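Priority: medium. Attachment 1 of 2:
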């Protein structure tokens, strides 16, 4: 059941219909409860995109500290499925993405030190989450921790060497460190 809500919500999102996408994800969250953690992550992204950082933060935190699990199935036979099948993503990656989302919430509040901690937590849980490495590098650049920023940005570029935004950000770092000839 969660996968149906996720598929429909993502389809509306890809069509640019944020209102319908948000509505579908909200309905999925209400109907599926804790089995909808990945949907809540996606809903958090929509909330953050439309400027509702408070709701996004609440959704991301709900993924990191889920409520008590009931021993009883709340709907159909999905309780027999693995957590990855129910949520649409493996649990460590989901946690990494929740930390990544919280990093953006705090960066939006100009709490860069805190956003660095969340981006770093995301990279520790998923060393292949290139966006987390890239945004960790940008946050470290804002803090003028240039060597650490360089390391994080280089890791993002190793993971996704064709991502032009990563190269743009790396160019900003090179400019800040007066290494434009590299």
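Attachment 2 of 2:
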């Amino acid at each position: 059941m969660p996968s149906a809500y996720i598929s429909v919500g993502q389809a509306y999102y890809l069509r640019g219909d944020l209102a319908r996408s948000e509505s579908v994800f909200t309905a999925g969250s209400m109907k599926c409860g804790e089995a909808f953690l990945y949907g809540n992550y996606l809903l958090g992204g929509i909330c953050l995109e439309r400027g509702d950082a408070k709701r996004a933060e609440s959704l991301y935190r709900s993924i990191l500290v889920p409520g008590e699990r009931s021993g009883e199935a709340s709907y159909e036979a999905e309780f027999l499925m693995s957590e990855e099948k129910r949520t649409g993503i493996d649990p460590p990656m989901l946690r990494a993405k929740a930390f990544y989302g919280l990093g953006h919430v705090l960066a939006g509040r100009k709490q860069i030190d805190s956003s660095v901690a969340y981006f770093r937590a995301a990279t520790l849980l998923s060393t292949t989450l290139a966006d987390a490495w890239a945004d960790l590098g940008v946050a470290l650049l804002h803090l003028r921790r240039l060597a650490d920023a360089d390391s994080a940005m280089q890791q993002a570029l190793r993971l996704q060497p064709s991502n032009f935004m990563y190269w743009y950000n790396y160019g900003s770092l090179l400019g800040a460190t007066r290494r434009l000839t590299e």
